[in-house]
Amino acid sequence: xxxxxxxxxxxxxxxxxxxxxxxxxxxxxxxxxxxxxxxxxxxxxxxxxxxxxxxxxxxxxxxxxxxxxxxxxxxxxxxxxxxxxxxxxxxxxxxxxxxxxxxxxxxxxxxxxxxxxxxxxxxxxxxxxxxxxxxxxxxxxxxxxxxxxxxxxxxxxxxxxxxxxxxxxxxxxxxxxxxxxxxxxxxxxxxxxx
Length: 194
What we know:
By secondary structure, the protein is an alpha+beta fold. Helix content is 22%, strand content 33%. It is built from 4 helices and 8 strands; from the N terminus they run ααββαββαββββ. An 8-stranded mixed barrel has the order 1-2-3-4-7-8-6-5. β7 and β8 form a beta hairpin. The longest helix has 19 residues. About 18% of the residues have low confidence.
């Protein structure tokens, strides 16, 4: 008899709790649930940039870093030093506000020591999709870029370094898969507004 009473009370408790999570009950008592979606295009998060003189914020992947200006991509010592301070801006590529392509790169190191030492801002760059936003800060101005495409290319591919002077674009690059240097992820975006 006690087991039957205990089971009955448990069923009543479950039904009562389940009722509290129905939309009608929530509306009746003014209950609101907060929906959080990871990597959602509709999710808007305010991220304070770490550097407004020259920095980058990518809300979708929680990227927020300073940018080291005019780094020689063929000088390993120069770019490895830059990676300890932020994202590297390729020497000779344009700056925000100029026609042409801004080229930024970072590394996802296979070496765990280097991974902790280097900036890992672009670790999730492969999650970017067309329509995502990238914010560049330069001279305390904010530039909004919209992603147009993403590519995974062979390590030896270099044609992405070409520059179209008719538009204001940005290319972000990192190694892929994360913690290897087998291939490269490239994300291209076009200036939307300042």
